[in-house]
Write a structure and sequence with these properties.
Elements: H1 15-20, H2 37-46, H3 53-62, H4 71-85, H5 92-101, H6 108-119, H7 121-131, H8 141-152, H9 158-174, E1 178-179, E2 185-186, H10 193-205, H11 217-220, H12 226-238, E3 243-247, E4 250-254
Antiparallel strand pairs: 1-2, 3-4
């Protein structure tokens, strides 16, 4: 399995994670593409929330909403966006993702990187090279490549690894974590209530419970330490996204508001 161990409470994908839409295995979209944030925004601007997978495909391929030159490129773009984001309402994580997308525009790039981490093991493997980088620190491609090599165990060629590094660096720039064309430097991102709610949702699916959920790497992706994560969870509660009770170290989080269509039990 290529999923990054630190994103999961017990070292491997929990059943809940797979059920809500996490993707694991020996492949990743970042061998060929980035998180494609601009394309995703264009698709969501045209295709309404609640649309079926076929409607997304029709808009991208037949409607050519992304203005791709060839039919082959349109089909490939539809495939890659589906790999990263599902684009299917029967996938719980996508339902939550699409609902939160419409809550506040400023949180969209962070929603995209979180969803992509959950669905692309290669991107997830690069996360430590970003999360451990101090603000204004310059990204070293060698450190990112070493992380990938440890995860893929020789399955990818050197050229492919280089391409994954380039694509991943671009993705982290699209999310706001990196800045710069040639030499990319770390920037601190500003978590939004919607992004925090989604990080909590993914953390729970990954096996985190109680107060430890605020220390999960899903919240660290938002540059939230445990204290800041608590504050953002309270913000998400105030905006009506989640239910939350905190009494000392006892934390009770109810995430059912995020996906009213789901019959999943309360955390």
């Amino acid at each position: 399995m290529w999923c990054l161990v630190s994103f999961f409470r017990f070292g491997s994908p929990a059943t809940d994670a797979v059920e809500i839409g996490f993707r694991c295995g020996a492949k990743g979209t970042h061998t060929s593409r980035t998180i494609m944030f601009d394309e995703l925004q264009q698709v969501f601007a045209i295709v309404p929330a609640g649309a079926k997978r076929e409607e997304y495909a029709q808009a991208i391929i037949k409607g050519n909403c992304l203005s791709k030159v060839t039919a082959a490129t349109r089909r490939l773009t539809n495939q890659r966006l589906g790999e990263l984001y599902a684009l299917a309402p029967h996938v719980p994580a996508f339902r939550v993702f699409r609902r939160l997308w419409d809550v506040e525009p400023q949180g969209r790039s962070l929603l995209a990187i979180l969803m992509s981490i959950a669905r692309d093991p290669l991107l997830a493997a690069t996360a430590p090279s970003i999360m451990s980088l101090p603000v204004d620190g310059e990204l070293g491609r060698d450190s990112m490549k070493s992380l990938l090599q440890a995860v893929v165990s020789g399955r990818l060629s050197a050229n492919t690894l280089d391409k994954v590094c380039r694509n991943a660096a671009s993705s982290w720039a699209q999310s706001g974590h990196l800045e710069g064309r040639v030499f990319k430097k770390r920037r601190q991102v500003k978590a939004s209530p919607s992004a925090a709610a989604f990080a909590l949702y993914l953390s729970h699916a990954a096996g985190f419970r109680g107060a430890e959920i605020f220390s999960s790497d899903w919240l660290r992706v938002l540059d939230c330490d445990p204290s800041r994560a608590r504050q953002m969870a309270l913000e998400a509660k105030r905006t009506g996204l989640i239910d939350l009770r905190i009494s000392g170290e006892v934390v009770d989080i109810n995430l059912s508001r995020l996906d009213p269509c789901s019959a999943r039990p309360r955390p």
